[in-house]
Every structure is written in C-alpha cells, then in structure tokens.
Amino acid sequence: MRRTDMRLALASGLIACASASPALAQYESGVSATVEAASEERRRGLSWSDGEPVLRGSISMPVAKGLSIEGATTSLWGSDRHGDADAVIDLGAVFARQFGGWSLSAEGRYHLFPGASGPGYGEIGAGAAFLIGPASVDLSANYAPKQSAIGGDNLYLSASAVVGVPGTPLTVSARIGRSSGDVRDPVRAARLRPNGAYWDHGFNIDYLKGRWFAGLRYADSSIDGPGSHHAGATLIGRVGFNL
C-alpha cells in the first residue's frame, strides 16, 4: 500500500471509530470515548510524531467491577522514532479501586505500530492517587520488560498533581518523570531513551465544557546532544470532545 493511501486509511479509521462509539454506548453502560486533534504527540518528553499534528481516538469499556479494557489510535504519519510508523495503537486493561481518599490502579498495555519496520512492545504499570479537596496527587511506575523492540528494558517513574480552579471549568497540573533501564542494543534503546536515562517535566492547563475540551501543555526534558531532536521545550495545543 502506498504511504498516501495508508495515511488516508488511518485517518478514516479514526473517524469511523469515533462515529461508531455512540451506538456502542447504547449497549454498554459506562462506555466512554473521545476524539481529539493535537499539535503534536509527545510522551515522556519525546515527540512520537516528529513534531507534526495528530488525530487521536480512544475508547474505554468496563467489563467488571473496577476493571476496564481500553484502546486508542493516534496518527503518526511516518514517525522516525518508531520505524516510519503511520500510527500507534495502544491496547490494554486497567484495574482500579477506591479506598477512602486513595485510588490504586494496575494496568498492562501493548503498543502496536502499523506501517513500522520494527515491532511493538508491552509494559505494565501501577499507580496511587490521593484526593485532597479539588486536588489530586498521583504517583506511578511503568515498566517495559526486556524486549528486542526497545533494546533492553525501560522503567518510567512519575509524579503529578492536578487541581481544579474554583468557579471555572479549568484545571491545572504539573508532572515530572524519569526514564531509565538496561541497554542491550543501543540503537533500539534510543527509541525510548535517546541519550540514556533522563528527566522530563511539564505543565498543563485544561478547559472542559460539556462534551468539549481543550488544553495547552508545556513539555521539556533533560535530553541534550544528538538525541535532543524533538525532545526540547515545546507548547502543545489540543481540542476534542467526549462522545
């Protein structure tokens, strides 16, 4: 398939997924879905879309008390970081329970990369969040076991805080994270850690009104040197709606 045709197919798939979600919601209580556009796809301080705008569709469906299965598709349009992938498909399950003011969660996810020359990879994670009035403090850890696709293993630790602005539809948040791990293949390990272990941080302001939402995000990392391409300070805008 030509790259242009593949891109059109992926974009059509995102729109089709979003259009089908309301019908699915009629049969599955608690199903939620979103569709959005963003000026860039950046994860853990690294651009996955080479600084280009993206489309994203996601869906979450509860299957048991505290357990949900989730899926998301994000256009990448030929990502250099992921072997010229035209998209990333994130598939996983999340288990969460509430204990007083605490919320504990565990998850497993696999990341697929249609159109890529290299394979996908999986990771597991756990998190704890504590509610303090309109604010939430979150701690999380995600671990990708040793896999050839990422040249070793990868551990990501992060902390974040979110607070609603009283009397407004705005929330503000801040986050800091650190990526580390063992390296077996330096070339493939650079996919998630261009210069080895590094820190990333960011600040968000988000607006939610009815089904619509928009946000502005500042993201940066400690990566410098040859691996710093699309890893420095940037502002990312997004807009979307909940179905």
Automatic annotation (TrEMBL):
Q: Which domain of life is it from?
A: Bacteria
Which first-to-last residue range defines the signal peptide?
1-25
User: Which InterPro entries does UniProt cross-reference here?
Assistant: CHP02001
Which keywords accompany this UniProt record? Signal
Q: Could you identify this protein by its name?
A: TorF family putative porin
What's the source species for this entry? Sphingobium tyrosinilyticum
